[in-house]
Amino acid sequence: MIRKLLLATVALTLSTAAFAQDVSVLRIGLDGSENEADQIRNTQCVADGLKAATGVAEVQIFPSPDYNGVIQGLLGGTIDIASMGASSYASIYLKDPEAVDPILTYTGSDGSSGYYTLMVARADSGIKTLADLKGKKLGFADPDSTSGYLIPNVALPAELGMPIDQYFAETGFGGGHENLVLAVLDGQFDAGTTFGSGVGEWAEGYSGGNLHQMVAKGNLDMDDIVEVWRSPLIPNGPLMVSNKLPAELKTKVEDYFKQLPKTDLACFQAYTQGANTDYIEVDPSFYQTIIDARKSVIGG
């Protein structure tokens, strides 16, 4: 009887291992920081390239209305790959350090591996500095956004000399970076926090980030906004891969992305939202300051 049970256990283990290696579909999560149709269009070339590079039968794109949908997908194993901000990775890490590996991040047009929170207001509002915003309404992009929520909540209180909720009359969320800027333009917020490279031409929305994407799509004229505040440099967010994938497939995925800036620069720049130059390897230690900040400010 014991021998039969052992044989059955071995058979089940081998069967499970074989199933784990037989992955026919890869799933890419999109976090809703940009218009859904644009995000899908900018990711389609990656989906096509991954299918060819890995040999899987299909690569599916899953847009989420917010960051948390992708975070939960990566934690639960229903999403395999995603590029998100460092705070989103920190949220995953604090819940399950083994759920994903942060494998790569991108370098910008100036060679840096970081970007900035950019607080913007309408150009005709008369708002030019943080002092002009006292008692007014501030919009954040998303509770899980690094630049659109976490970093302002870490950096602003020291500059303001008081907690954010005491300085501003009201705060709220815009539902992603693009929607937030549109909400500022519509007067729903007096100012809002988005992100960008902070280098390059102002008229182009800098060289990368949300403002750059909006200008490129014709959704924003930079003459209509002013930059009120920028944060310290933030580490670029990671490309994350689920640890539920077989090791051999994970290696193929990583190799594809490492080569992407060389094999298809236009696809790489569309996927990373700017005139970026390359991918560099990262690990959890690259994001330790963000993990600590998220644990302190949000708790998870």
TrEMBL record:
Keyword Iron: no
NCBIfam families, A to Z: 3A0109s03R, PhnD
Signal peptide: 1-20
Gene3D superfamilies: Periplasmic binding protein-like II
Keyword Glycoprotein applies: no
Listed name of the protein: Phosphate-import protein PhnD
PANTHER family: PHOSPHONATES-BINDING PERIPLASMIC PROTEIN
Gene Ontology terms describing biological process: organic phosphonate transport; transmembrane transport
Gene: phnD
GO annotation, cellular component aspect: ATP-binding cassette (ABC) transporter complex
